Amino acid sequence: MPYFDFIYGTGWGAFAAMLAFQIPFLIFFLFIVFWKSFVSPKASRSPNKKAAGVEGMWMTVVVALFLAVNIISIQYIPAVSTAQAVQSGQDIQNVDVTAVSWSYEISDREFEVGNPVRFSAKSTDTQHGFAVYHPNGNVLFTMMLVPGMSASSLVYTFQDPGTYKVRCLEYCGLAHHAMSDELIVTASSN
Ligand code: CUA
């Protein structure tokens, strides 16, 4: 199962994850307020040497976690996965996307599992987004399209057959919510 699908698979997953991250901080905060208000309201005199040791250890854990999460997630950065796809030497299917309020012109809407696809996207009127959703509802990638800029491009290799939703994730006016499209991914033919 790729990357936190078990949390984000349902629409409420991100919300639940956010709460799960915040509730411990809230409890800790309330506990400190309660403790310093009623139980031990005087200024604390913690033994400095001992505290320094614990702080050093805690800092090491935080730095190690920071490094680990960054290293593990590097492959999910679109620029990195694009470079990997280009270096693999596979044929890349080129697709042009033009966003215009409030729809997309897409030169090709059908793809095959395992074939890298280069989406080159631009906007001609206002700022739009080009976000592609897996059939299970996860966002696979999103691009911000700024009018007047040359096309942004990104290479993506679809892993599962199905109907993928395209949605605009940059607010672009009255019908922003209705700005969507579909891509069809079929099983590999070779
Ligand atoms: Cu286009 Cu929102």
Q: What is the strand and helix layout of this fold?
A:
Blueprint (H helix, E strand, L loop, with lengths): L4 H4 L4 H27 L8 H26 L4 H10 L5 E8 L2 E4 L3 E3 L3 E8 L4 E6 L5 E7 L6 E6 L4 E6 L12 E7 L4
Parallel strand pairs: 1-4, 3-9
Antiparallel strand pairs: 1-2, 4-7, 5-6, 5-8, 8-9
The structure holds dinuclear copper ion (CUA).
Dinuclear copper ion binds next to loops.
In angstroms, what is the radius of gyration? 23 Å
Strand order of the largest sheet: 3-9-8-5-6
Percent in helix:
25-40%
Number of helices: 4
Order of helices and strands: HHHHEEEEEEEEE
**What molecules are bound to this protein?**
dinuclear copper ion
**Mean pLDDT over the residues:** 87
- Please state the overall shape, judged from the principal axes of the Cα atoms: elongated
Proportion of residues in extended strands = 25-35%
Summing up helix and strand content along with how strands pair, one would put the structural category as alpha+beta
Report the sheet with the most strands, covering strand number, pairing sense and barrel closure: 5 strands, mixed
Task: Compute the number of strand runs.
Answer: 9
* CA distance, first residue to last residue: 24 Å
Which residue ranges are poorly predicted, with pLDDT under 50 across at least 5 consecutive positions? none
Task: Write a brief caption for the model.
With 190 residues, the chain is α+β, with helices and mostly antiparallel strands. It contains four helices and nine strands, in the order H-H-H-H-E-E-E-E-E-E-E-E-E.
